[in-house]
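Handover notes (outgoing to incoming on-call)

Open items:
1. Peroxidase: sequence verified, structure written out, both below. Nothing else pending on this one.
2. Nothing else urgent.
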Amino acid sequence: MRRERLGFGFALAVLSLWCSMEVAVEAAWSLQTPVNLVWHYYKVHNTCDNAEAYIRHQVESFYKYDKTIAPKLLRLLYADCFVNGCDASVLLDGPNSEKTAPQNRGLAGFAFIDKIKTVLEARCPGVVSCADILNLATRDAVHLAGAPSYPVYTGRRDGMTSTKDSVDLPSPSISWEASLTYFRSRGLDVLDMTTLLGAHSMGRTHCSFIVDRLYNFNDTGKPDPSMKASLLEEMRKLCPPKTKKGQPDPLIFLNPASGSKYSFINSYYSRVLTNEAVLGVDQQLLYNEDTKQITEEFAAGFEDFRRSFALSMSRMGNINVLTGKEGEIRKNCRFPNKK
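Peroxidase structure tokens:
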């Protein structure tokens, strides 16, 4: 595996981190087998020298008024990369597009990406892909929320198709075994999984994604026994049982400690350790020795989590990317170009 594509200082920091930690798990500390992405692609190829600066400026402007863009973009990027790869197919409109899949209910941030694309098309028409915009904007937004900045290699091209049948995102009540199998199918490992689930340190989810834990865990007619009693009581007040069609589906915070501040903090891992995780997949991190050890390390050391998050986000952004003559550079992120 070649490591020179990852900045030397960044790779060294990650290696140093894992040499100093007590966690004895087998995990990657570099990017995957190299894909044809380039550091500062648009500047290197002199096609849009200030593309990343334009994107960063738009993110900073929006973030001042709407801090929810950080968790929204994180979820949007995950929903894109884990399905067909990081090709911006999740941004495409259509009656049967990915965004219409049940798993993608509540996805947001589309209008924000549209705004950035409009700015870039005015300055560098037909050059910057929607896939790169989504990756760069997400990095900049979560950095403003308290996450580390991390290397985003660019040169991705956009996919031309999007179908809801291709969306295989797992249930948030999935077991840790099934979750790890899913992550591994995307070229990621146990450290990536435990780290990327830490994105749940901020943001909200619909009650429908946890109602099974509250009232009918594994079809037992009882709540999830792993959920702390005080959290169960709190969540039941916010999420009544579903008894009729068309019933409201409220939004709840994934991490009350972050709440409406939408800040990137490591209290998510502390809550997992005290059985206060909102999503079932998060609480499952205690049921495997490797994920439990990583959770304990991240709960004790925020910088450990930040460094691992930087690497895992870079690795996620490399999943099945389109480069060269593959795909296209969309003029509008919602529609493929007309041939």
